[in-house]
Design a protein that fits this description.
- By secondary structure, the protein is an alpha+beta fold.
- It has one domain (2-113).
- Helices cover 29% and strands 27% of the residues.
- The protein is built from 3 helices and 5 strands.
- It has a 5-stranded antiparallel sheet, covered by helices on one side.
- The longest helix has 16 residues, at 73-88.
């Protein structure tokens, strides 16, 4: 709970969907009750309680935050760039992923799973 209580805007966090699908999320809004984050590659938005679980009308499915570990500065910058790229939906060739972006998408799950929040 302590790690979730200090989540702030622009944090990149990691969650799992109800079916086990991994979610690389960028926090864009925080208040006393929870925070909102969007899935970087799909731009789907989710509202979380301070327990790290989606609440309210989770029309895009349910997600539980399993890690709030801080990415390395390089990984963090790539994640922010990916968020901007997927939000802009650029046409070819501007939408082609860089090697760094591909590397992040291939390795972020392993990074966060090595740094899980305590709990069940």
């Amino acid at each position: 709970m302590q790690a979730l209580s200090v989540v702030k805007v622009d944090d990149v966090i990691f969650g799992l969907g109800a079916g086990g699908q991994d979610k690389l999320l960028l926090v864009y809004e925080v208040d006393d009750n929870g925070f909102s984050a969007r899935h970087i590659t799909t731009q789907m938005t989710f509202k979380f309680g301070r327990d790290g679980k989606t609440w309210g009308n989770a029309t895009d499915g349910y997600v539980t935050i399993v890690s709030t570990a801080k990415l390395t500065p390089d990984m963090y910058e790539v994640a922010l760039g990916l968020d901007r790229k997927f939000a802009a939906r650029p046409e070819y060739p501007d939408g082609i992923l860089t090697k760094a972006e591909i590397q992040l998408l291939l390795t972020h799950k392993r990074f966060f799973e090595a740094r899980l929040l305590p709990g069940p």
